[in-house]
Amino acid sequence: MSDSTATNNNQAEEKQCRICLDGLEAEGELGKLIRPCLCRGSISYVHVKCLQTWRNTSASRSAFFSCPQCHYKYRFARTRIVGLASNPVLVGGLSALFFTFIVMLASYITTYFMSAFEEPTSSSYYSSWFFYVSPLEVAQDLVVAALRILKEGGIDGIFDDNIPTSRNGPRSRRSERLLRPDPNPGFIKRFIKRFLLGLPLVGAGSLVHMLLSVGYLLPVQWLARYRGNRNRRDNSRDLAALIVVALLAVGALRALLKVYQLTHSMTQRLLLRAEDAILEVNND
Would you say the pTM of this structure is higher than 0.70? Predict the structure, then answer.
């Protein structure tokens, strides 16, 4: 037997999976012994099935896409759906649909609890040690202010002039007419109406969640209560309304960003599982 043949046999005998520690004899059960990354030496080889199990069960999310030792990003076998996981158009479209669904759901929540959005809250929580601000009441005050702003703005007749202004008496029937359909409302008008009803709740929830970490809930609540308790006079400057709208826009954009990030992660995770065949790297 030649020296080269002996050397190749010795190298084959030395191949060992870095996960299960078995060698070539286990390929029938655990798949081919490959080198999927740039690691060298005793940790360079791994069985295909051992690697897949590690990627799917590892506590580190990055382990699904790259080697935890050398940080080399695995090369996936090309399939018909390759690239979909990272396609910004696809991810953006799915994110927009998901975000729209959330806003539509929020519009029905707003309608169902319309009596709670008729007037701003008035409760305060004092003690000798702190002043407590309820995040739920801050979100409620923001929604009340936003609905009043939308009502006063008219929005081309989408909103009826029926947001109540009285604090007294039982639930106003005018609030129940907020979503009363026109004789021929049309799909687009109904969709816009629903979207505008749900967007303040989504923006308020996202904004309150963001402000919880920085402690600025109290000024935002004061501003929302101030704007929710007043009506805009003709031709008067409405700085409070502009600030409320800007804050809710920031919250809505933050919510959209979170939805995009979640959709991107889920899409990448799901689609790359269909491209699970990892190519071997020639790192000689």
Answer: no
